Amino acid sequence: MNPKAITFDFWGTLFTEGPDFSAKVMPARYEALLDACAEAGHPAEEAEVREAYRQAALAFEEAWRAGEVMTTFDRVARIFALLGVPYDPGLVALTARRLEETSLLAELQPLPGLEAIKTLARKYPLAIVSDTGVTPGRLLREHLRRAGLLEAFQAFSFSDETGFVKPKPEAFHKALEELGVEAQEALHVGDLPHTDIKGAFAAGYPWAVQYVGFRHENGQVQPTRVIRSHEELLSLL
């Protein structure tokens, strides 16, 4: 492998949510939704909010697997509909923003070998190509800043900003255009075969490395290599 640039997935490749997420972030999200219901004059019970949140999360998963972007605004609008809260776009937007901001309440957990990113950045232009959920790209940048890694990346393609989810080639091409590199000159690193590996090859990459330091999923498309730590990239390259 002799790439001119490297793109990375974010979730499950660089970071995961970590132990504080369930303890700090989720209660804050439920609280934000309960407050919004009260503001709308339609109070709800926490159990109802939790169930509506769960159903909206399933809808997000379905949309993602269908290659569609479901924004946090869309998710909150669905939650309100499930709870019978009257539709108010201003309140939906405000609540969506509140849900997004909760992600900053917990530090993300770095995955094995993350310290190699700074070493790679000294030799290669790096970019992130990532699908986003409730936490949008602007806040993923903040998490990178907190980890001291924001400056290591020269380009970003987050689905909430581009409108494209992996494995759509456009998701990858957006980042490559910012880097000024052709797909046939790039390497992608990600954990999911059906989005990262399949998508990178579909976008024209000659190399796609599957990262299994967090989880190992099998897929129909075989990666160029499999690594358990980003440190392994240093020797591969």
Automatic annotation (TrEMBL):
Per its UniProt record, what Pfam families does this chain match? Hydrolase
UniProtKB keywords: Hydrolase, Magnesium
Instruction: List, separated by semicolons, the cofactors it needs.
Output: Mg(2+)
Q: Which top-rank group of organisms is this from?
A: Bacteria
**Any one GO molecular function term:** hydrolase activity
Family matches, as SUPFAM superfamilies: HAD-like
One GO term of the biological process aspect: small molecule metabolic process
> Any idea what this protein is called?
2-haloalkanoic acid dehalogenase
Q: Which organism is it from?
A: Thermus filiformis
